[in-house]
Amino acid sequence: MLAAREHWGSRFGFIMATAGSAIGLGNIWRFPYIAGENGGSAFILIYLAVVLSFGISLVMAEMVLGRATQRNPVGAFRALGGPRWAFAGGLGVLTGFVILSFYVVVAGWTLAYIVFMAGNELATTESAVLGAHFGNFTSQTFAPLLAAAVFMAMTAWIVAGGVGKGIERASKVLMPLLFVLLLALVARSVTMPGADAGLAFLLTPDFSRVDMNTVISATAQAFFSLSIGMGVMITYGSYLQRDVNIPRSTLIIVLLDVGVAVLAALMVLPAVFAVGLDPSAGPGLTFITLPAVFASLPFGQVFGVLFFSLLAIAALTSAVSILEPMIAWAVDEHGIRRGVATLVASLVCLLLAIPASLSFGPLSDATLAGRTFFDWMDFLANNVMLPLGGLLVASFIGWRWSGPARAHLSNDGTLCLPWLSAWIWLLRIGAPVAIAALVWQAVGGS
Ligand code: PFF
């Protein structure tokens, strides 16, 4: 079974597929509004610090585990740490279910917005009208669920067909296209009349608004955006050839991910100010402000259709990567056929997506401690499960497997990595202490 394991066809393909996992709704939809809620540029600076220290270290750690074992997360932990460690991979598989269930809801919105754009339903710069449109759509019972189901089916179709050539080939075309379109939209957004206030918000750090919650939000966002803490990078690393330079590839992937997030903030926030919206408007931000930008552009409708298509595609390459670890686990560990595993996992996620979607409509009042079902899934996955998964990876490599990890990361000493010891110590002490403190604070403060 292991001998037949697929591998990436090229380093470029691997980087695009992995960047495809990292770059998704987290960057384009979530980052701008979280930055908006947390005071703009001070948040972005803290985010960069977290990503460039803990983020990079953990991506490398997961990839090493995957490439060394050529297995899914559960199999990887069991192979290196014995049966007692298998639960660490199991937590990742479970987290995948939680994340995918709310991810497909928002991804479904992007599909619906392609249709709205194409039908010219959003041709106004009036934020109140666009806000009402967003609220009307997301609070319906069936339409958003149907959109989520269509998105889930697309994801399942790709995963069922095998990861290798499908995702890799698509990512090689779609990701560069996404970059070009983002740049064009940023250029338009920052030159809109009235955008200066948004630029100032993004470029003048206001540290008086930074508190422990800002740091927690930045860390949670880093885990989500880099796809760490649930074994995606272990799984994608398990499709890697032995000779790839993991540190260099990781740096490229992380820089692409951060670059797209910052560009997305530059695209959304100046436009928010230009059309007079509140930057802390929350999850609706992208869906409400960008149509206003498009409405003020020549050929804006075309741009709008393209933008939401690419957002859906970015979400698709991420969703595929969230589904893949569960499937790799079912196939590797239990010999279940890929198609069957994909179908069952997708149906379970879709079932969980129902209350997540209804949280914006019929179940919006069904809250526990002030959070809807959707908010709980988002909170648990991002503030508890992903950080805990990261803590387990860091502790495992730091304390149980540091010697082989050093050898493996440096391709048996052929790469000169003067910072290897710093990496190990960060995994041993820095990451676990920081993560434990954050999870504690997040849970206690909830
Ligand atoms: N990184 C993806 C995004 O930013 O949209 C989402 C994601 C993918 C989260 C894979 C977690 C994960 F394991």
Summarize the SSE layout with pairings.
Layout: H1 11-22, H2 25-37, H3 41-69, H4 73-81, H5 86-118, H6 127-138, H7 143-160, H8 164-190, H9 196-203, H10 212-225, H11 232-237, H12 246-274, H13 285-295, H14 300-334, H15 338-358, H16 373-400, H17 402-409, H18 420-444
Helix pairs in contact: 1-8, 1-12, 1-14, 2-10, 2-12, 3-4, 3-10, 3-12, 3-16, 3-18, 4-5, 5-7, 5-14, 5-15, 5-16, 6-13, 7-14, 7-15, 8-12, 8-14, 9-12, 10-16, 10-18, 13-14, 14-15, 15-16, 16-18
Fraction in beta strands: under 5%
Counted by DSSP, the helix tally is: 18
Secondary-structure element sequence?
HHHHHHHHHHHHHHHHHH
The largest β sheet comes out as: none
- Structure summary, number of beta strands: 0
Ligands (ions, cofactors included): 4-fluoro-L-phenylalanine
Architecture overview:
By secondary structure, the chain is mainly α. It has 18 helices and no strands. It is globular and about 60 Å long. The N and C termini lie far apart (45 Å). The model has no long low-confidence stretch (mean pLDDT 90). 4-fluoro-L-phenylalanine is lined by residues 21-22, 24-27, 99, 224-225, 227, 230, 232, 318, 321-322.
Notable characteristics:
76% helix, binds 4-fluoro-L-phenylalanine, mainly alpha, 446 residues, globular, 18 helices, single chain
Concise overview:
76% of the residues lie in helices and 0% in strands.
